[in-house]
Amino acid sequence: MDRDGGPGPGEAREQRTWRLVALVVASLIVLGALPLYFGIRTATRDPVLNSLDALSVPAWAAENAQDAVSGSRWCLVDCRFRERTAQSLQGPDETTQVYEAALNEAGWRRWEAAKMCPEQPVPGHYTCWRRDELTLDLWVRPPSCAQQPADGVTPPATPPPAGPGGTCDGSVVSVKVRNAIDDDRVRSGPSTDPSLTGEDPDPVFTDDPLLDDPAPTTS
Fold first, then answer.
1. Distance CA 33, CA 51 (A)
2. pTM of the model
């Protein structure tokens, strides 16, 4: 300490050194925390969603992507159902081409399902795919604002939402992924169209004897 009561040259140098050390440590913590955070997030996230992120589609074909997930990854009670919806700046034809090319590159193969791919005609392009224990539905269609109402149907007072950029151009992309064991198109038996319902409802067993009225008793 000098005569004026302030820190001497040695003490001032030591304080600067400790400040520099603290700054370096804080920088290392920040730089290390970010990769750790994203690493944990990737490890705990659904691997199917990670594989959809890895599809080599251009940015213009996957804007404003939103995911919806339900069910269990281990098929406890209900199997996992995943749906991704995104917007594309290009029309359905161009968008379908880049998505189909990306799916082929990622190991998915076109699946000509015997039924419900889709069962009812839908606008745009609807295709089905399989890879390992998964099935995938790809639906690329014009935005709702571009779909004309059917004959005799009064158009809504509020116009449908516009596509990307506030115009009625581009297209909407829906990707639905299921476990094959939970896809009725793989299993036998009646089903509903998954392209319209998203998830099939629980079956109703109409021949359950417990549901029948008891036989009348005679005295």
1. 24
2. 0.62
